[in-house]
Amino acid sequence: MIRHHSFSYIVSSDGRVDAVVSAESGIPRAVFSYASASISINGKAARKSAKVRAGDAVLVEYDEEVFEGLVPEDIPLSVLYEDDDILVIDKQQGLAVHPGAGLHSGTLVNALLYRYGEAFMDTDDERPGIVHRLDKDTSGVMVIARNAAALSSLQRQFAEHSTEKHYAAIAKGRTSSHGMIDCNIERDRADRTRFRATEDRSRGKEALTEYSLVRSLRGYSLLDVRIHTGRTHQIRVHLRHIGHPILGDSIYGGIDPRFPEATLMLHASSLSFSHPRTGERLAFSADLPERFLRASDRFSLS
Question: Which of 79, 106, 202, 223 has the most CB atoms within 10 Å of its CB?
């Protein structure tokens, strides 16, 4: 179910609103990056990077998914690394990260409850272990926190963009050898399940995507994509915005009648972050899945 939070606070120091309110009130800084987050300062809408001064009144509202009555399920996971603090997996395509409306089983959270038991819920009774998300049809590297301290540390790293995330994508058309897509992303007003890019900096949330051409295919490009921010559907929306939707993306125009069986060609190929206990910089990667190899063969230039 969805729980709505509304929090008002009078700040006592100067600085960025997300940093100041998080430090003074204990609200996780990651909250300010939620797609549902709404921030106002002295009654006026503001972005998380807006400046506040001592005495300003801040209102923060956001929605949180609350997991209740979950059942452990024996769902196989491809484990890349595990210790007492973190689990790193290569998430398979088709596995939803957590339950949502109309989805109560068969998710990564159900699998984690089976793997670690009910004590795993103690990491966070609303978002147990989940530091970041991949769309259901996006495969690849994910890190999961095994305790509350690890969860807090990793959420802070993602919120501050000190992690490094790369994705592999097969995009329609021939792209340039390298590019940056720097435009805000907002929810589509006509369809709340979709997002859209906007050049209006006063709307939506800032988003920055960098891509490099790895290999040219017949009518497609295999890309290495790095996201410098972590917005919902960011890569899918940004690549569509520049005229290169991802092959197999039924939401953002990536269906090809020549290859109707293609599913979303987006894969989290690597992730690096600092270990929440030791501070050691860690890097993990996941090989391209079989669906990428099939698509590359189908559209090979040779």
Answer: 223
pLDDT per residue over 40-51, tens digit each?
Answer: 999 888 888 899
The total of structural domains in the chain comes to 2
Confidence check: pLDDT of 272 > 90: yes
Q: Confirm whether 226 is domain-assigned.
A: yes
Q: What is the signed CA dihedral for 184, 50, 130, 140, rounded to 10 degrees?
A: 30
pLDDT (0 to 100) of residue 278: 97
- Catalytic status, residue 135: yes
pLDDT in tens, 186-220: 988 888 789 999 998 888 889 999 999 999 999 99
Asked whether residue 105 is domain-assigned, the answer is no
Structure confidence at residue 66 (pLDDT) = 62
Q: What does the angle CA 282 – CA 126 – CA 29 come to, to the nearest 5 degrees?
A: 55
Q: Which of 84, 135, 182, 256 is catalytic?
A: 135
Using an 8 Å Cβ cutoff, are 89 and 78 in contact? yes
Q: How many CB atoms lie within 10 A of CB 202?
A: 8
279 in any annotated domain: no
**CATH at residue 229:** 3.30.2350.10
Q: What is the pLDDT of residues 216-269, one digit of tens each?
A: 999 999 999 999 988 889 999 999 999 999 999 999 999 999 899 999 999 999
Contact criterion met (CB below 8 Å) for 177 and 156: no
